[in-house]
Design a protein that fits this description.
Blueprint (H helix, E strand, L loop, with lengths): L3 H11 L1 H4 L18 H15 L4 H11 L9 H16 L4 E22 L3 E2 L23 E2 L4 E9 L5 H9 L8 E5 L5 H10 L4 E5 L2 H4 L21 E2 L37 E4 L1 H8 L27 E22 L4 E11 L11 H19 L6 E8 L2 H4 L1 H9 L1 H7 E6 L18 H10 L5
Parallel strand pairs: 3-7, 4-5, 5-6, 6-8, 10-11, 10-12
Antiparallel strand pairs: 1-2, 1-9, 4-9, 9-11
């Protein structure tokens, strides 16, 4: 079981050769750490022991409960409260910190509607079902299910099922003589970023995109659904952004430049990372009503999901009406930046980051990671109070607006571009800090041995 305590101890230890704290103590003999001499390993391990003694399950629960108390979408008062909470905790640990604000262009949904017109009429609720065991599942404060950066629009058309919505899927449709031009494409989540699915649909001439989570990939086929288990229940809808971050991330209207309040902005029509066709997420409960009415050829091998009927590709007779109204505006994005000045190499920066905004409550994404970042701050605070300083400058970053398209981190990076090129030596990112019992890490290949060493060092409770 990976806990916030063990995960962030692991995170700090993984960067130990770069962080390297000043101290003159002489702990017991120990195998040298990668990147350290035997003598410096002994000093480093004692300091890491002091750090690791601070985080606790109780403090992790306290932080996590506060962070998940209410939905906190970027730009909303609840998100400002989260940013101020992170700021306050950093400062209480003796870490100089500030909220760094940018002004980015992003939407909230005014109204979303999807209606099945043929062969039967049905207005989809586009709301999750509440559960008696979970009071928060009934909250009216949860944002409407939508795709951030989908344009407003109204589309009516026949439906074509295109599997995961990847280029090979459209090629398979073309081989079967099926043209998606002017059609509404229904695709399932998985195997690519949702923005890719919308871009590929655009390139193939689709009029709109509906994206649902098939129970084959994320539902009862994989295990027990919530609240009995962790898998997605029938009415759950996956929110997310469809900004084309693969073209460029961050504020669409200030590409390559920080989104300050007085920034020069291009028009939305000039922003090449914005989709031009509407898209909307669906639950598999609603998507099944569309899918089961499709005719045309039976789907190719590998396209069948776990809903209890044979999938067909269409087009029709399923016909839908989509109506989306989005409220686009330039709104605030709040980053929280803490900084501990390095003792020996202050011009070399080691950055630990995690985003702090969420589409709803964000228990796993991002607040398991935010909780872990706060635990790290507590451990660092103890070291600071004992007069120990890192040899390199350590920056703790709580990013805002990540869910929309890496807004806060991108704008900060563009703002400090020249300094980061000269000074940044390492970056450790935590997003989903804790999710089940499996540990996972990704890094440049050069750190593989170090990560393996760390996993043997950090004690994990059974």
């Amino acid at each position: 079981m990976i806990t916030p305590k063990s995960f962030l101890s692991l995170g700090l230890l993984a960067l130990a050769p770069l962080l390297a704290w000043q101290d003159d103590s002489q702990p017991p003999t120990q195998q040298p750490l990668i990147g350290f001499s035997r003598q410096s390993s002994l000093r480093q391990l004692e300091i890491e022991g002091i750090f690791a003694s601070v985080p606790s399950p109780e403090s992790a629960r306290f932080h996590h409960r506060y962070l998940t108390e209410e939905p906190h979408v970027e730009g909303q008062p609840a998100q400002r409260r989260v940013a101020e909470y992170v700021l306050d905790h950093f400062q209480k640990q003796g870490i100089p910190a500030e909220i760094v604000e940018y002004q980015a262009y992003y939407p909230y949904p005014r109204s979303v509607a999807v209606q099945l017109l043929e062969p039967d009429k049905k207005e989809f609720a586009l709301r999750e079902v509440g559960y008696a065991v979970d009071k928060d599942s009934f909250s009216e404060d949860v944002i409407l299910p939508f795709h951030a950066y989908s344009p407003s629009g109204e589309v009516e058309g026949q439906v074509v099922y295109a599997n995961y919505g990847l280029p090979d899927d459209y090629a398979a449709l073309q081989e079967r003589g099926i043209d998606v031009r002017g059609k509404v494409v229904l695709v399932r989540y998985g195997r690519s970023f949702r923005g890719v699915k919308v871009r590929v649909a655009e390139e193939n001439g689709a009029a709109a995109v509906l994206i649902y989570s098939d129970p084959m990939d994320d539902g009862y086929f994989q295990g027990d659904v919530y609240p009995e288990g962790p898998m997605r229940p029938a009415s759950a809808i996956q929110r997310g952004s469809v900004e084309f971050i693969f073209i460029y991330p961050g504020d669409p209207l200030t590409p390559g430049l920080p989104a300050h309040s007085d920034a020069q902005r291009i028009s939305p029509e000039q922003a090449v990372n914005l989709p031009r066709i509407p898209s909307q997420p669906l639950s598999y409960q609603d998507a099944s009503q569309i899918l089961k009415s499709l005719r045309g050829p039976v789907v190719p091998k590998g396209w069948q999901g776990a809903l209890p009927f044979t999938y067909h590709v269409g087009p029709g007779p399923s016909r839908v009406h989509i109506r989306l109204q989005m409220d686009f505006a330039v709104r605030p994005v709040w980053n929280v930046i803490g900084r501990i000045e390095g003792a020996d190499y202050p011009e070399e920066w080691v950055i630990l980051g995690n985003h702090i905004d969420a589409w709803t409550y964000g228990a796993v994404d991002p607040n398991s990671g935010t909780t872990a970042l706060l635990q790290v701050a507590s451990g660092l605070g103890k070291l600071i109070r004992e007069g120990k300083r890192p040899r390199r400058t350590l920056i703790l970053a709580g990013w805002g607006g990540e869910e929309y398209g890496l807004l806060g981190s991108t704008e900060w990076g563009e703002d400090l571009r020249d300094e980061l090129v000269r000074k940044a030596v390492a970056y450790l990112n935590v997003d989903v800090g804790v999710s089940g019992s499996d540990f996972a890490a990704q890094s440049v290949p050069a750190l593989e041995g170090l990560i393996r060493q760390v996993t043997r060092t950090v004690r994990v409770p059974c």
